[in-house]
Design goal:
Length: 160
C-alpha cells in the first residue's frame, strides 16, 4: 500500500510544505489527477490547524483500493471543527465547505490526544475502470460546479 506520513510544526509556513508533500507523493504514485484536489484539501485542513488548533499536525495520505485516496490531518486539539456561515466579504470560514464540496466523503474522528479530520478522494472514472493513465484534461465544468455560491461577476482571491 502506498502511504505518506509527515509531521509538521503548527505554523503557517507548514501549510505549503504539507501541500507540496501531498502533490509530490501523488505525482510519484502516478495519480496526478488527484493532485489539485488533494493539495487544496490539505491546504484548507492544515490552515485550520494553524488558525484554530494551534498545535503541530501530521498529514497521512493513503491510496485506497480502487484508486482513490484518503487524506488525514491529525492535530493535538479535541475541538471538533464545524462549518461556519460566512459573508461575501469574509476572509475565513470557507474551508470545510470546500472540503465537503470536493471530497467524496469526509469526517472527524476523535483520537487519543486530539482529532483526525479526513477526506476521501474518488478515483477518476478512467482509473477505476481501467486502472490506466489519467486524462490530462481538467473537467472545468465540474470545477465550476464545485463552487456554486460564487457569482460569476464577483472578484476571486486564492489562498496560499
Amino acid at each position: 500500500m502506498q502511504r505518506l506520513q509527515v509531521s509538521y510544526e503548527g505554523s503557517p509556513s507548514s501549510v505549503p510544505e504539507a501541500r507540496h508533500a501531498v502533490e509530490q507523493a501523488l505525482h510519484d504514485w502516478g495519480m496526478d489527477e488527484l493532485g489539485w484536489t488533494a493539495a487544496l484539501l490539505v491546504s484548507e485542513l492544515a490552515a485550520n490547524v494553524t488558525l484554530h488548533a494551534r498545535t503541530g499536525f501530521t498529514v497521512v495520505l493513503e491510496i485506497l483500493p480502487g484508486g482513490g485516496a484518503r487524506l488525514e490531518v491529525r492535530d493535538g486539539s479535541a475541538r471538533i471543527p464545524r462549518q461556519r456561515r460566512f459573508g461575501e466579504q469574509a476572509t475565513t470560514g470557507r474551508g470545510l465547505h470546500l472540503v465537503e464540496d470536493l471530497a467524496a466523503a469526509w469526517g472527524v474522528d476523535l483520537v487519543e490526544g486530539g482529532k483526525t479530520v479526513w477526506a476521501e478522494l474518488a478515483a477518476s472514472p478512467e482509473r477505476a475502470q481501467t486502472d490506466g493513465a489519467p486524462d490530462d484534461e481538467p473537467d472545468l465544468d465540474a470545477l465550476l460546479l464545485a463552487f456554486p455560491d460564487l457569482d460569476d461577476d464577483a472578484p476571486r482571491a486564492l489562498a496560499a
